[in-house]
Amino acid sequence: GHGLHAAATMGRLRTAVHNFSSLDLPPDELLGHLDELVTRLEQDAVAADDRTTIAGATCLYAIYDSVTRNCVMARAGHPAPALVRPDGTVEFLDVPAGLPLGIGGLPFESTELELPEGSRLVLFTDGLVERRDQDIDTGLRLLSETLAYPEHSPEETCEAVLDALLPELQSDDIALLVARTRVLGAGQVAEWEVESDPAAVRRVRSDVSERLTEWGLEDLVETTELILSELLTNAMRHGAGPINVRLIRDRTLICEVFDHSSTSPHLRYAATMDEGGRGLFLVAQVAERWGTRYTEDGKVIWAEQTAPETPAD
Questions:
Q1: Own/partner long-range contacts of 141-144 (Cβ < 8 Å, ≥24 apart)
Q2: Which CATH entry fits the domain spanning 186-306: 3.90.460.10, 3.30.300.30, 3.30.70.260, 3.30.565.10?
Q3: pTM (2 decimals)?
Q4: Can you list the positions of beta strands (E) in the chain?
């Protein structure tokens, strides 16, 4: 849609996506929750005799991992994105379409792929490639031809696409997003496999302290050791081995602990005389953010801290 109401509707949906994304849900599950929300809003509108509609909105949701170059995405009735490889090759990705939000109540399906470093991922609305005097195949062909310039930056790509495809008389709202993939260098990631033995925590803490010093992050040694101790102890008590630790130095410092249990940790406030139950509370106090991300064979508990600027490797 287009106009003031469509803009207000998209604002509500963007807020919902932002809130759902903080739960670390995979794309297909996030779209499922968003679909349920739209359905409930539609039902409430009908009950209130409100003729405005939110059903039929489309969405494409993608998550990119700059360590593994892995990208997972799912879509609800939205046009499939284009991928521009570093050599200029353009392809429209095969992502199961799914129905628009609030229409079918059917499950969505995620697609997982590995993106070469320096690729450009191009997301767009159908108003860019489809209009009354031009079929969508013609629009997609023109878009593909315009994207096939590997030397273009994301900003230059947007300018070229809009110059080539934007109609003189615009009848539909158009959105275009171009993102270039990057990969964190090997020197920005450190990993350890940890035995399910409390004595192993001390050894990992020592290794982590040494690595942070190498990275010039001495100010974060104390808090990172605290976070790591609590997350590892939690994994040993309530999770299942093997256990792995990963540190990621980017704009922030991220500490991750992997284990093979899907049991979700819960933050609770221990009573004065309780002997335990303070671990995640302490993590929440010293970290900027923390959360849980589920994998095919377990979960990852992560904590993020603000890091001072240091030269990237």
A1: 143/82, 144/82, 144/90, 144/92
A2: 3.30.565.10
A3: 0.86
A4: 59-65, 70-76, 82-84, 90-92, 111-114, 120-124, 176-180, 189-194, 243-249, 252-259, 289-295, 298-306
Cα–Cα distance between 229 and 293 in angstroms, integer? Answer: 19
pLDDT for 26-58, tens place per residue? 999 999 999 999 998 888 877 877 666 777 889
Residue 191 in 3-state DSSP? strand
Helix (H, G, I), strand (E, B) or coil at 193: strand
* Options 3.30.1390.10, 3.50.80.10, 3.60.40.10, 3.40.50.2300; CATH of 4-180: 3.60.40.10
Helix and strand numbers, DSSP H then E, in the chain: 7, 12
pLDDT digits (tens, 9 = 90+) for 13-26: 899 999 999 989 99
